Amino acid sequence: MDYLVIGCGPDSMGEAIAYRLLSEKNTKVFITDQNPRNIAITKNKLRQHRRKCELYAYGFEEQGFDVIRQKDELPVRFSKFSMIISAVPASLNPIIANATLLA
């Protein structure tokens, strides 16, 4: 399965979710965050613990992944994944849920 975990800053719930998913077989885990620096930090940290995993950063070029600014693009982006997991503030979850349903 291909998972997208949204909201993966360092020491976040998203990081913990991605860490756990990386122990599953036949799994690709994509992590993303609004802050591109957070994506890079978390990716490097997780790679230290799970070197044999398939872990990828996912973002909109240099901008990171901004759920509000890029909400019109989300259904197309989400359609590429088996599952979307949100670890962002609860106020953003309706946007993510709607985009997931449209994917």
Gross geometry: globular
Q: Per DSSP, what share of the residues sits in E-state strands of 2 or more residues?
A: 15-25%
The portion of residues assigned to helices is 25-40%
Rounded to the nearest angstrom, the radius of gyration is 13 Å
Average pLDDT taken over every residue? 90
Largest sheet: 4 strands, parallel
Distance between the termini: 16 Å
Count of individual helical segments: 4
Uncertain segments of ≥5 residues (pLDDT<50)? none
Q: Structural class, from secondary structure content?
A: alpha/beta
The count of β-strands is 4
Give the strand order, joined by hyphens, for the main sheet: 3-2-1-4
Q: N-to-C SSE series?
A: EHEHEHEH
Write a brief structural summary.
This protein is an alpha/beta fold and 103 residues long. It contains 4 helices and 4 strands. The mean pLDDT is 90.
Explain what the structure shows:
This protein is an alpha/beta fold and 103 residues long. It has four helices and four strands, in the order βαβαβαβα. It has helices at residues 13-21, 36-49, 74-78, 93-102, and strands spanning 2-6, 28-32, 54-57, 83-86. Strands 3-2-1-4 form a four-stranded parallel β-sheet, sandwiched between helices. Helix 1 links the parallel strand 1 and strand 2 (28-32). It is globular and about 35 Å long. The mean pLDDT is 90.
Question: Which structural traits does this protein have?
Answer:
103 residues; alpha/beta; 17% strand; globular
Task: Lay out the secondary structure.
Elements: E1 2-6, H1 13-21, E2 28-32, H2 36-49, E3 54-57, H3 74-78, E4 83-86, H4 93-102
Parallel strand pairs: 1-2, 1-4, 2-3
